[in-house]
User: Which sequence fits this backbone?
């Protein structure tokens, strides 16, 4: 907790400083880029006015508009640095004193703004999980301007403590949250069956799904290898598997890997049991019609899909590496080595054959998310940290 004085507290409460600018100068599209727009509704509900800084024509800028704000935009990161004076003027005109960056490359701009205006408070969320030390002169300058660094899991926090030139008290674990209402409202019986049929799931089959971008780190190879082994194990229960994710580079996936996976499925004669759905913008509905969700990602910094599946009351089989091991325990699902296709096949088989166990795990996971991983809980801590920083002398 930051030290404050009564005069600073009085000044804060007399003035409306509950304003924040989220900075995300990225042309990509993933969990990091989606984050600012995801939390805007809850930030607004908790009394904060949100502003954004994004690249012109980016999906980030579009998402901020859909969330209800018109962002300040720049043609490039270089242009943003050259426009530091106009950005400072914008911040002053709107009485914004909190900046929150989401890409490490944006900290250059954030640190420069704080250097030029010491009243600003700078926050940074490490969404990716740093992989190498950042203690050279530049990083000591940039991170030295950061008021608080948020790590999205304990795994990420331990990496951050080792890599960043910050004291431990300025690096805080803050798990991500979700809007649970989007996931815990199941489809009606007729809609449920119609949606399953649309996805290619045969009537009466246990549906096993792996949602996510089709890239080497997400574990689709071990998933397909496990299905090949699963097909060789006698079982009285039919199953059907879905690989849920874009099939092209434009949709964020590796086209070569998609082709490789399709070939593996065809070679094993599983084309009738495995569906590649392509990109879906209705993931909550997809999760609601699955029976088992697999997340074999080798090195997740958090594992948003895990808590989304749990919120949808679905048991999860996850990789026992990275941050997923923090989220999944035997009450909610199973953990398997990300390279052990045989282990994945047997974990799937256990859940395929036991509908009661799937229901018990699903209910327990949903309760855990409601306790610890809601958007409301996440944002409440976020704004508490913002407020503490603004009360600093």
Assistant:
């Amino acid at each position: 907790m930051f030290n404050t004085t009564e005069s600073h507290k009085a000044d804060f409460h007399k003035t409306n400083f509950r304003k924040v600018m989220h900075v995300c100068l990225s042309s990509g599209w993933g969990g990091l880029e989606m984050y600012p727009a995801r939390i805007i509704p809850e930030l607004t509900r908790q009394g904060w006015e949100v502003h954004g800084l994004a690249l012109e024509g980016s999906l980030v800028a579009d998402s901020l508009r859909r969330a209800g704000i018109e962002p300040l935009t720049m043609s490039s990161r270089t242009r943003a640095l050259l426009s530091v004076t106009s950005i400072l003027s914008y911040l002053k005109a709107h009485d914004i004193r909190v900046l929150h960056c989401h890409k490490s490359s944006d900290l250059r701009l954030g640190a420069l703004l704080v250097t030029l205006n010491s009243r600003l408070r700078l926050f940074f969320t490490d969404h990716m999980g740093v992989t190498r030390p950042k203690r050279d002169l530049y990083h000591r300058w940039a991170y030295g301007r950061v008021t608080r660094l948020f790590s999205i899991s304990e795994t990420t926090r331990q990496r951050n403590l080792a890599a960043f030139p910050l004291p431990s008290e300025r690096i805080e674990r803050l798990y991500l949250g979700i809007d649970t209402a989007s996931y815990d409202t199941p489809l009606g019986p007729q809609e449920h069956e119609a949606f399953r049929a649309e996805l290619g799931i045969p009537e009466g089959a246990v549906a096993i799904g792996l949602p996510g971008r089709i890239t080497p780190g997400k574990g689709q190879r071990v998933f397909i290898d496990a299905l090949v082994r699963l097909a060789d194990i006698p079982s009285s229960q039919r199953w059907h598997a879905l690989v849920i994710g874009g099939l092209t580079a434009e949709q964020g996936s590796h086209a070569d890997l998609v082709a490789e996976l399709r070939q593996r499925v065809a070679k094993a004669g599983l084309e009738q049991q495995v569906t590649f759905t392509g990109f879906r913008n209705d993931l909550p509905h997809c999760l609601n019609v699955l029976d088992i969700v697999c997340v074999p990602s080798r090195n997740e910094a958090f594992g948003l899909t895990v808590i989304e599946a749990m919120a949808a009351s679905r048991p999860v089989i996850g990789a026992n590496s990275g941050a997923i091991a923090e989220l999944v325990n035997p009450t909610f699902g199973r953990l398997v080595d990300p390279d052990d296709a045989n282990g994945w096949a047997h974990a799937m088989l256990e859940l395929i054959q036991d509908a009661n166990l799937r229901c018990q795990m699903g209910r327990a996971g949903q309760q855990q998310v409601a306790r610890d991983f809601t958007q409301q809980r996440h944002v409440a801590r976020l704004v508490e940290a913002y407020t503490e920083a603004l009360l600093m002398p």
Notes: The chain is about 45% helix and 15% strand. The radius of gyration is 23 Å. The domain at 6-177+374-390 is CATH 3.40.50.2000 (Rossmann fold). Residues 151 and 173 are 5 Å apart (CA to CA).
